[in-house]
C-alpha cells in the first residue's frame, strides 16, 4: 500500500500546483491514500468550505491542519459535520472538530492523527499524554501522524518515543522540506518537515518585501501570500505486506 502526504498547501499558488500535479503523482506512484495538510490553503491561514471541497474533489482522503485551523470563521460552521478534516488532537478538548479518526480502505484500517508541538507554539496539551490515550484505544492496522511543530528536536523526540508503534510521524509547519527522511530502527517512517506546497519565491509563502520590512523595522506588518509559481512538496510512504513502513521518499514538483 502506498501513501502520499502533501505538506502545508499555501494559498492560491499551492492550490494551483496541487491541482496540476496531484493526479500524475497518484498514477505514477500507484498511490492508494492521500493526506494533505490544509491549514494554510485559504489565503495563507485557515481553510474555508470551498477549499475543503476543492481538496475532496481532487481525491484527498484526509485533511490535517495545525495552529491556523480556526483562523477562518467559516471553519466553525462545518468542521463538526465532516470526519476527514482534523485539527490537532491535543488542542483544548472544548474546541470543535476531531484530532484523530479511523478510515477503512478495503480490509485495511487506517488511523490518521493530527498532533501539535508545544515549543514556540500556542498552548496545547501534552502530546504524549494525548497520543498514549489514542494508541491505547487504537485498533487500526496503519497509524500515520501529522506532527505540526516548530522545533525539529521536538518532532524527532516524538517519533523516537513511538518508533515501532506508529507507522509514520510526518512533521509539518515550518514550510521548508527537510532532507532527513528515513525509517527509524524499529520501523517508523519519519521526516522532520514534509515542506510547503506553495510559492517557492517567497518567505515561507508570504511576499518577501513585507517580511523583510518587519524584520528590518520591527513594525507590525500584514503579510500577503505570494502569487509566484508554486512548488509541490510531499513524501511517499510504501508499506510492506505486513502494513509496516518499507520506504519513505521525498518529492518536489514545480
Automatic annotation (TrEMBL):
Fe cation 1 binds at residues 8, 39-40, 175. Pfam families: YmdB. Fe cation 2 binds at residues 39, 67, 148, 173. Keywords: Metal-binding. The keyword Metal-binding applies. GO terms for molecular function: 2',3'-cyclic-nucleotide 3'-phosphodiesterase activity; metal ion binding. The keyword Metal-binding applies. InterPro entries: Metallo-depent_PP-like, YmdB-like. The active site is at residue 68. PANTHER family: 2',3'-CYCLIC-NUCLEOTIDE 2'-PHOSPHODIESTERASE (PTHR36303:SF1). This is Putative metallophosphatase. The lineage of its organism: Bacteria, Bacillati, Mycoplasmatota, Mollicutes, Entomoplasmatales.
Amino acid at each position: 500500500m502506498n501513501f502520499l502526504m502533501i505538506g502545508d498547501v499555501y494559498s492560491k499558488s499551492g492550490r494551483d500546483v496541487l491541482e496540476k500535479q496531484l493526479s500524475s503523482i497518484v498514477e505514477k506512484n500507484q498511490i492508494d491514500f492521500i493526506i494533505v495538510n490544509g491549514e494554510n490553503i485559504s489565503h495563507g491561514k485557515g481553510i474555508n468550505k470551498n477549499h475543503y471541497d476543492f481538496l475532496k474533489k481532487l481525491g484527498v482522503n484526509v485533511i490535517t491542519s495545525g495552529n491556523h485551523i480556526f483562523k477562518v470563521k467559516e471553519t466553525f460552521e462545518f468542521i463538526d459535520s465532516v470526519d476527514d478534516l482534523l485539527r490537532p488532537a491535543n488542542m483544548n478538548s472544548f474546541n470543535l472538530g476531531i484530532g484523530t479518526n479511523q478510515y477503512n480502505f478495503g480490509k485495511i484500517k487506517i488511523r490518521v492523527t493530527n498532533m501539535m508541538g508545544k515549543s514556540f507554539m500556542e498552548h496545547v496539551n501534552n502530546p504524549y499524554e494525548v497520543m498514549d490515550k489514542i494508541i491505547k484505544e487504537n485498533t487500526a492496522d496503519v497509524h500515520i501522524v501529522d506532527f505540526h511543530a516548530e522545533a525539529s528536536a521536538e518532532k524527532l523526540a516524538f517519533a523516537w518515543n513511538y518508533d515501532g508503534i506508529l507507522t509514520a510521524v510526518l512533521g509539518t509547519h515550518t514550510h521548508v522540506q527537510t532532507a532527513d527522511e528515513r525509517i527509524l530502527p524499529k520501523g517508523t517512517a519519519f521526516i522532520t518537515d514534509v515542506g510547503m506546497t506553495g510559492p517557492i519565491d517567497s518567505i515561507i509563502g508570504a511576499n518577501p518585501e513585507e517580511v523583510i520590512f518587519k524584520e528590518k523595522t520591527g513594525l507590525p506588518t500584514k503579510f500577503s501570500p505570494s502569487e509566484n509559481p508554486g512548488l509541490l512538496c510531499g513524501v511517499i510512504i510504501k508499506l510492506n505486506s505486513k502494513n509496516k513502513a518499507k520506504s519513505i521518499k521525498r518529492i518536489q514538483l514545480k
